[in-house]
Structures are given as C-alpha cells and as structure tokens.
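Board notes (copied after class):
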Amino acid sequence: MRRLIECVPNFSEGRDLARVSELVRSVESASGARVLDVHSDPDHNRSVVTFAGEPAAVEQAALAAVGKAAELIDLTQHRGEHPRIGATDVLPFVPLEGVTMAECAALARRVGEEIWQRYRIPAYFYEYAATRPDRERLENVRRGQFEGLSQAARIDPKRAPDVGTGGLHPTAGAIAVGARKPLIAYNITLDTRDVSVAEDIARKIRESNGGLTALKAIGVAVRSRGLAQVSMNLTDFEVTSIEQAFEAVRREAERRVCTIEGSEIVGLVPERALDLTGDYFAQLDSFSRDQILEQRIASVFGESAPQNATAPRGAQSSV
C-alpha cells in the first residue's frame, strides 16, 4: 500500500518571493518529496507551502526547509498581520494514505527533536502531537507571539518549549510541530477598512468564544486593499463546513452594516469540503481546481487520490 503524508509548513515570509523560491527548492531537494502548492500573502507576510510524499522523504524535506528558513528569515525584522512565533511558524504533518495519525504524531515529535539538535530552534508540540493538554490548541502555544514568547519561555516554566533550553532562537524563534487532520484556511474580506469590525466578527464566530465548533478566527487588516478580513482555520470541515463559516460571517457582517467583498481558500482543500453550488463558492476569488487536494495528489504522483481524503462523509478513516 502507498504511504503518503502531507506537510504544510507556514513560513514568516510572504513579500520576498526570491526567498520563498529558496524555501521551495529546499523542500524539493529531498528525494521523493513533491511540492503540491505554494501560497504567499504580503499582508500576512506569510507563505504556506504544501508538499507530500513517503514518510521518510517528508521528514527530510521538512528538516531541510526549517534549516533554510532559519538562514533566510530574521523575526526581529519581521512585520505582518498574521501571528507567528518562528521563521517556520508551524510544521504540521497530515496522514493521507496508509499512515495513521499516531504515526504522524510520532514523526512530528522526532522532527521536533532533530530541529533542536541541528538548528538549536526550540519546538512546541501541538494538536495530536501535543504532550500536554494545554498545548493541543495552537493558539495557546502561540500566545504572545515571538516577542512575548521570547520573554515568557525564559522565565515561566509553563511556557518553556517541549524540546530545547535557554529560550528561543534569537532570530528564528521557535517552531510549533504537530499532527492534525486536513485543515482549511479560509479568509473572508469585508467591504470596510475598519479592522475592529473583522475582530468583532471573529470573536463572535470562533469556537473559543462559544461560536462554531472547530473554527478559529482572527480579524486582520488587508492593507494592500484598504479592507478588513476575517481569517479563519476550519480544523474539522465535517463538523463546521466552509458554507457554515461563510454564513456566520455574512450574518454578523450584516448586523454591522457591511457586506462580504470576497473570499479565498489558502492552499489545498479536500474535495468533500466543497459544495460547488453553495453561495460561498460564487464569492471565492481565483479558485482553481488545482487547489483540490485529491486532484493535486493524482496529478503530481500520477496515481489515484488518497483514500483518507476521499472517504464517504461520516465514515471512519484510518486516522
């Protein structure tokens, strides 16, 4: 049976595309790792690179990319709308086919240890790789961002990394390494420049404030367009769908006398998460069928789509 893992590192660089290209090349330097998608956002100052392969190839590609990011990115000079704690901010591993979530969690912990040994970048483990319940949620790990965590990690034992000592790396920060289900990054832009409106909506709809289950949301400024945005992560699209997230934002926006300007899916999305007839789909900006995870896997690897990503709704997958 084919064994495939997806890895989706988020790098704290979305403006210098030459640097982003170097990061992509570092992934491709590992034999057997194949890049599926690259998305860079200058407002967030963040790039999301999606790649996949056999577990050993993915592990080597991840380590190479983290090392290259540490060379290229200085967080003391980084400014952007998206929260971050490291040059490679998050490094999640996602089981696609023939691999269990437990195996991905074990790989994540092994990679976190190796990152510390090679690069002296401390690691925090989150979601299924977490070794402490309070670190299952990424936002708990990232609280305070690079600047705040740099101080807290040195003086507060509760904020110390899972791997590494002596505080954060002076320029590369720390890294959150995890194992998780497929995540959908979904941004909705509002026809207002008032960021407080987006922040209010995000607080209202996110799970941590009693909103939609499996939904994380923040409000940010899209300075290049003079607009505000609700930036969301759907951590389990079978619990909360893209359309439910869209409708929740639309309702809250109407209550604040504004409308939706447009929306985008960042990176790849499982086919089962898409309703091509939904109202939300009509407002997606520049969506391509190449963003469908199963199609990219089949195109790049030249074989059938991963079984885990295409299991019938409600069925149990191997994770």
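Comment from the instructor: Residues 308-319 have pLDDT under 50 and may be disordered. The chain has two domains: 4-179, 184-288.
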